[in-house]
Automatic annotation (TrEMBL):
Ranges of residues in domain Xylose isomerase-like TIM barrel: 36-299
Organism: Streptomyces filipinensis
One Pfam family per UniProt: AP_endonuc_2
SUPFAM superfamilies: Xylose isomerase-like (SSF51658)
Coiled-coil stretches noted in the UniProt entry, renumbered to this chain: none
Name of this chain's protein: Xylose isomerase-like TIM barrel domain-containing protein
InterPro entries registered for this protein in UniProt: IolE/XylAMocC-like (IPR050312), Xyl_isomerase-like_sf (IPR036237), Xyl_isomerase-like_TIM-brl (IPR013022)
Amino acid sequence: MVTPTPLDRIRVGSAPDSWGVWFPDDPRQVPWERFLDEVAEAGYEWIELGPYGYLPTDPARLRDEVARRNLKVSAGTVFTGMHRGPSVWADTWAHVSQVAALTQAMGARHLVVIPSFWRDDKTAEILEPPELTAEQWAHLTKGMERLGHEVRETYGLDIVVHPHADTHIDTEEHVERFLDSTDAELVNLCLDTGHYAYCGGDSVKLVETYGERIGYLHLKQVDPDILAEVVAHGVPFGPAVQRGVMCEPPSGVPELGPVLEAAQKLGVELFAIVEQDMYPCEPDKPLPIAVRTRRFLRSCGA
């Protein structure tokens, strides 16, 4: 058996998403206590906060719950619509401040920023055109830079923007345009391997080309056969997930080993958080997948 090269700069974790958690409160989701118990049982030591309000928002209580299970927090997550211009800043900052304060209190250093959806992920209703105007691109890039500056000044966190299916930062073209239009001192990227593949991108190529902008990783795979059906029929992201488009590694694409190896070569410490979208799912489904996924990542050296 070939011993994998140790990926000693990659810090592996998982997230509520891998337990089918998309919302702060939903009867189809596992209780937060079970998530924490099972993510620790699966062999992970790092977690994300997930949707704000799913885990306890009192820092002292959350610190206790996390520490009792020998877990640590790597990041919080926010959704934003910066392309809509300065008028959304006040509401955006109110939301971001809540999440950033808890993230900071948990000792984490990153805030994952997801752009708002252009179509509803449940109903498929088209909410906005999928392509931004030049003015909207300017709002998006300047707004993210402002957010990066304010989050760092106020909370000492770095923002990492997450390209995501059914948002305006999705395809290789859009991701590269976003990176080329933003200041690396203020804004970097959370590369989600599954979402990038879902939208036709090559994660290894992106890491090798824009390595200095990769500040964080989400590990995920897509089932290419289901993805082909999704693309052919214009299925929105939510129903695509219900069809199983995001699948357990190593059965999908991209291969995660080469992505992790490319990330290791960057010479910086990076979080690599497993996020297998499974909303909604049976409560007993996530743990066995999480155990197998952790074992697989160890076989890659992570």
